[in-house]
């Protein structure tokens, strides 16, 4: 009787489980956005908006602390003081080897700012909460954009003739209501629309951030590819109260923390935070590769080339040739064709001469995360190539690892009497000092130096510069990673880097020589011991 009761219980349980399973199978699939809120159903967003700040005001009715959080981020302030060097950095303060400087060129440069209407960087970013741009990161309608000369505002109806977006496309009238009702977590396009086009065009600046990453193949980026991990930028660049991990001003060159528990590691964007410092399999080769991770960045082996996917990167920018006119009019030469067939400018009267390249082998250097910038206050030696941002680190520094970089060659203006880099006023069609309008370097430099309140002797020249950008995107498939010979060879990638043993190329130090001698003695000792044991066994057998 007990057995029959047990059997009946089992059958009833099975039927109930079957009913539950059947009910689950008949449940319709999820619809709508991934967010727990469908913003198209929110009454504050069911209206016509006439400006970006109006949308932000509506967002703040629910997300009351969002603007305050964003105002404390580098994305909004463009202001950062390095706690180790004391240098005041951020876009509003530094000089670069691309467009030179933001100061005096605000309406063009702040078109990619995460806010609206910041037209004078000599004063802090607008404190009005409605001046924060929520849509630039959270629009998922795909039609929100910023105009390239409106200090962060989007193009609205009627759009000015000839207007361009920040990605260089012909501007269209943005539907702010549609954008506001679409908001969700940032996608690759939200980040890429600014970061892929920094420096004046697609992949101009970083080299490893281009439009190829909107929808890359697995060969271009295993993390972002839809055939790979299908990551968004935020998958690695995690955030906490809108503070986004990962900054070129404060790089975590060596992550000793490794992977974290749920709820932890919200302040890093490193390979180790997911893969740990021992990512390779426990094979003989894998263990040897794991032995490298304390001295070599993951990116060094796993990003063999950058500017992949058909989009070239700018490798040289010479401002000294700018200003050449033909029949009194500016000229443009498009003499480089990248692999997708698009022609790229090699000379512009407004900007000078350029070189482009694809599938670029990185520049390698020891890096401990610290970078020292050459600012407008730094005295330079014009007889030497000036490093805009000097990479810190060495083989003797335990915090340093070998990192890959894009090395950008530039030639830019400096005060030939004071021996300092200068600011330039380039953008501004309605001014008498903007270089893009008047092609007069002296007026351009004087106007910008007066604008920032720095002295100018009235004499200028041009100096060669280098600027470095850490390469950390476009991770290749594992079978495309560098092998041993790529680095440990006489003419390998690290042949000119100190602190790396290259067989037959660089002399070994006393420690290395002593190590090899000890290794040889150990091998001889083990071989001798084995031979004696073998002879001993044979002798014992014949006895």
UniProtKB/TrEMBL annotation:
<keyword id="KW-0812">Transmembrane</keyword>
<dbReference type="GO" id="GO:0016491">
    <property type="term" value="F:oxidoreductase activity"/>
</dbReference>
<dbReference type="Pfam" id="PF11783">
    <property type="entry name" value="Cytochrome_cB"/>
</dbReference>
<dbReference type="InterPro" id="IPR036280">
    <property type="entry name" value="Multihaem_cyt_sf"/>
</dbReference>
<dbReference type="InterPro" id="IPR051829">
    <property type="entry name" value="Multiheme_Cytochr_ET"/>
</dbReference>
<keyword id="KW-0732">Signal</keyword>
<keyword id="KW-1133">Transmembrane helix</keyword>
<feature type="signal peptide">
    <location>
        <begin position="1"/>
        <end position="23"/>
    </location>
</feature>
<protein>
    <submittedName>
        <fullName>Tetrathionate reductase family octaheme c-type cytochrome</fullName>
    </submittedName>
</protein>
<dbReference type="InterPro" id="IPR024673">
    <property type="entry name" value="Octahem_Cyt_c"/>
</dbReference>
<keyword id="KW-0472">Membrane</keyword>
<feature type="transmembrane region" description="Helical">
    <location>
        <begin position="514"/>
        <end position="535"/>
    </location>
</feature>
């Amino acid at each position: 009787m007990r057995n029959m009761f047990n059997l009946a219980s089992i059958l009833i349980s099975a039927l109930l489980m079957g009913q539950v399973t059947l009910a689950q199978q008949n449940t319709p699939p999820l619809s709508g956005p991934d967010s727990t809120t469908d913003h198209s159903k929110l009454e504050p967003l069911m209206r016509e908006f006439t400006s970006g700040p109006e949308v932000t005001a509506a967002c703040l009715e629910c997300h009351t602390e969002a603007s305050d959080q964003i105002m404390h981020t580098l994305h909004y302030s463009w202001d950062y003081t390095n706690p180790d060097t004391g240098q005041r950095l951020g876009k509003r303060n530094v000089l670069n080897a691309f467009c030179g400087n933001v100061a005096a060129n605000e309406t063009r440069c702040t078109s990619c700012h995460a806010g609206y209407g910041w037209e004078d960087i000599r004063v802090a970013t607008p404190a009005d909460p409605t001046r924060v741009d929520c849509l630039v990161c959270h629009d998922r309608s795909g039609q929100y954009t910023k105009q390239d000369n409106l200090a962060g505002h989007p193009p609205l109806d009627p759009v000015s003739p000839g207007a361009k977006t920040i990605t260089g496309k012909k501007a269209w009238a943005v539907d702010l209501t549609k954008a506001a009702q679409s908001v969700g977590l940032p996608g690759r396009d939200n980040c890429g629309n600014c970061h892929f086009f920094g420096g004046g065009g697609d992949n101009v600046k970083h080299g490893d951030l281009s439009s190829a990453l909107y929808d890359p193949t697995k060969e271009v980026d295993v993390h972002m590819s839809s055939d790979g991990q299908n990551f968004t930028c935020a998958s690695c660049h995690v955030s906490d109260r809108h503070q986004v991990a990962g900054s070129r001003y404060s790089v975590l060159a060596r992550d000793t923390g490794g992977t974290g528990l749920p709820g932890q590691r919200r302040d890093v964007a490193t390979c180790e935070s997911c893969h740990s410092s021992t990512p390779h399999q426990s094979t003989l080769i894998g263990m040897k590769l794991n032995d490298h991770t304390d001295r070599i960045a993951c990116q060094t082996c796993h990003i063999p080339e950058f500017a992949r996917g058909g989009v070239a990167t700018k490798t040289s920018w010479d401002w000294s040739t700018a200003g050449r006119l033909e029949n009194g009019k500016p000229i443009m030469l498009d003499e480089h064709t990248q692999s997708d067939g698009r022609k790229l400018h090699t000379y512009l009267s407004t900007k000078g001469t350029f070189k482009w390249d694809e599938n670029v082998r990185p520049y390698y250097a020891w890096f401990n995360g610290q970078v020292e910038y050459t600012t407008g206050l730094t005295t330079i030696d014009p007889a030497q190539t000036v490093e805009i941002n000097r990479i810190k680190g060495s083989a003797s520094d335990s915090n340093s690892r070998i990192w890959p970089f894009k090395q950008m060659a530039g030639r830019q203006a400096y005060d030939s009497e004071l021996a300092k880099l200068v600011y330039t006023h380039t953008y501004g069609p309605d001014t008498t000092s903007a270089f893009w309008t008047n092609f007069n370097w002296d007026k351009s430099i004087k106007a910008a130096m007066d604008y920032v309140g720095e002295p100018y002797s009235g004499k200028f020249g041009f100096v060669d510069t280098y600027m470095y950008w850490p390469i950390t995107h476009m991770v290749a498939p594992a079978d495309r990673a560098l092998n041993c010979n790529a680095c440990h060879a006489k003419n390998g990638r690290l042949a000119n880097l100190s602190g790396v043993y290259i067989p037959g190329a660089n002399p070994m130090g006393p420690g290395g020589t002593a190590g090899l001698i000890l290794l040889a003695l150990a091998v001889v000792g083990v071989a001798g011991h084995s031979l004696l044991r073998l002879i001993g066994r044979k002798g014992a057998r014949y006895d």
